[in-house]
């Protein structure tokens, strides 16, 4: 029985633990989810919740209408953001194996930044220190994430869009 339970842990067959939270570190149902969101006590990966602000989603004129932002401006904004965050985290906390920025409009994912450090200790220290920081006028909310394989957490819709226009599926 224990072997069976271990084999289905974190999968859609698991009726106790949320497979979405296990796979992507977030769940669209949030606290209303009927399954458990097991927050790790140690992990190489952290998530910085809602840290990235895509200018296409936030640019507004004085009257509140949406501003058009070119693809070039969006890419430049993203590149600057990525370089700033990656460089600071690696210099202050340790070697980064992978960093992914969510460009997804789902409330549970929008602007999340996932950072996988080489060492769990670096991730733990980053969470402790980043929760006392501000970035772009907003408080940083960092937590350890269960995500270890970003290939499993990549949005299928984004993968398809990335393949169609030649971009990376971040």
UniProtKB/TrEMBL annotation:
Domain RRM as annotated: residue spans: 65-147
Cellular component, GO, one term:
nuclear speck
Q: Which SMART domains match?
A: RRM, RRM_1, ZnF_C3H1
Q: Name one GO biological process term.
A: mRNA splicing, via spliceosome
Q: Which InterPro entries match?
A: Nucleotide-bd_a/b_plait_sf (IPR012677), RBD_domain_sf (IPR035979), RRM_dom (IPR000504), RRM_euk-type (IPR003954), U2AF_small (IPR009145), Znf_CCCH (IPR000571)
Give the matching CDD domains.
RRM_U2AF35 (cd12538)
Keywords, sorted A to Z: Metal-binding, mRNA processing, mRNA splicing, Nucleus, Repeat, RNA-binding, Spliceosome, Zinc, Zinc-finger
Please state the protein's primary subcellular location. nucleus
Query: What protein name does the entry list?
Result: Splicing factor U2AF 26 kDa subunit isoform X5
Instruction: Please state every residue range assigned to the domain named C3H1-type.
Output: 12-40
Q: Which family does it belong to?
A: Belongs to the splicing factor SR family.
From which residue to which do the C3H1-type zinc fingers run? 12-40
Q: Name the Gene Ontology molecular function terms of this record.
A: RNA binding; zinc ion binding
Q: Write out the annotated subcellular location.
A: Nucleus speckle
SUPFAM superfamilies this protein is in?
A: RNA-binding domain, RBD (SSF54928)
């Amino acid at each position: 029985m224990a072997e069976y339970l271990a084999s289905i842990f974190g999968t859609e067959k698991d009726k106790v633990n949320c497979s979405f939270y296990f796979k992507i570190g977030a769940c669209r149902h949030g606290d209303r989810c009927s399954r458990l969101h097991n927050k790790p006590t140690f992990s190489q990966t952290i998530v910085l919740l809602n840290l990235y602000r895509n200018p296409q989603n936030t640019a507004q004129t004085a009257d509140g209408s949406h501003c058009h932002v070119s693809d070039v401006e969006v890419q430049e904004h993203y590149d600057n953001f990525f370089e700033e965050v990656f460089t600071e985290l690696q210099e202050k906390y340790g070697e980064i194996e992978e960093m992914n920025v969510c460009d997804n409009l789902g409330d549970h994912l929008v602007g999340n930044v996932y950072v996988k450090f080489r060492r769990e200790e670096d991730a733990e220290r980053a969470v402790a220190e980043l929760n006392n920081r501000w970035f772009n006028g907003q408080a940083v909310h960092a937590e350890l994430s269960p995500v270890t394989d970003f290939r499993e957490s990549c949005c299928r819709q984004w993968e398809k869009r990335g393949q169609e226009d030649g971009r990376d599926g971040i």
